[in-house]
Amino acid sequence: EILRQSEKPVTELRAGIIIGPGSAAFEVMCDFVYHLPIMLTPKWVTSRNSPIALCNLLHYLFELINMPPSSNRIWDVSGPEQMSYKDQMIRLGKIIHKPIRVLPIPFLSPTLAAYWLRFITSVPTNIAKALIGGLRFDLPADGTQIQQAIPQILLTYEEAVSIALKKQVEVVANPIWGFDPDAIERWQTGYGYYPKQAGYTLKTDASLDALWQQIQRLGTPGTEYFFANSLWHLREWMDKIIGGNACERYRRDPDTLQLGDRIDSWKVIALEDKHFISLLFGMKAPGLGRLEFTIKDHGNYRTLDIRAWWHPAGFSGLLYWFAMMPAHLFIFRGMTHAVAKRSKAKIATGASNIQ
Description:
It is built from eleven helices and 15 strands. By secondary structure, the chain is an alpha+beta fold. The protein folds into two domains: 2-170, NAD(P)-binding Rossmann-like Domain (Rossmann fold), CATH 3.40.50.720; 175-354, 2-Layer Sandwich (Alpha-D-Glucose-1,6-Bisphosphate, Chain A, domain 4). The strands form five sheets. A seven-stranded antiparallel sheet has the order 10-11-12-13-14-9-15, covered by helices on one side. Strands 1-6 form a two-stranded parallel ribbon. It has a two-stranded parallel sheet with strand order 2-5. The longest helix has 29 residues, at 314-342. It starts with 10 loop residues before the first strand and ends with a strand.
């Protein structure tokens, strides 16, 4: 809107569903198909749109760089066929060899359906709600105009989905995960692309050096996990019972951490001195996760954030996440306050936050 009000001519592309890794609409459909054998949906699930492959959309965008407009223009972009959301989910199920049933419920409004989205999809709730709200409208885009200006072969729905599923692993092949080979190897098709998260942020007057020194002692004798160590040990024994190795103790050095270090079943996959440590979750569970410690210096105070990130594996992964959430929030609150206390803090206030 701001660009349109400028003196520069602007080209707008309007797309419906984009089929590609990270596309919120596509990931919501993936989560529904992977998590639920039967889907009760609003009647508007029969609304039609024209899904387009992400690579086709990117090709249009790249070519438009060399085609500066002389005036403002709006072009629709679309794939080679129109289909309903229902048909897209059924065809997605066939691609991943997971038969599903979609049952439209007349009295189930998009607003009502949006309330339980957080229990079904890992896509951020505000985005998922907006997408569900748009179900009531047909979005039959006509991409003839841009296809005449920038001709290309448009991928079918099946081709676009197959490519998107293969590229979802890129969510862990990035700096946040430290390009860690163990994380990449453990990623599986069907894991939620968008992670769930829960954490606690503490505001304190403890010094940056003191906080960092304490965090680096994670897992050492006498320190262990700062708070509720009995709960940590209980989870480790649960892991051992199902064949995990969480009860084995590892620490290369009691005072410092470096990339690749093991802390019991955890692995240091990212580290920024006096600011950030990310640990790869090593226990057996339906999904892939990491635990982060982040310190920020705000001049006259510091914040310490301890946060878990979880990519659930199907419905069981979501159940595991919500079952563990009360313990996570309780433990992270205690951990942050314990770290601040060990760092000689005089002031420590904070709050939990989840998504």
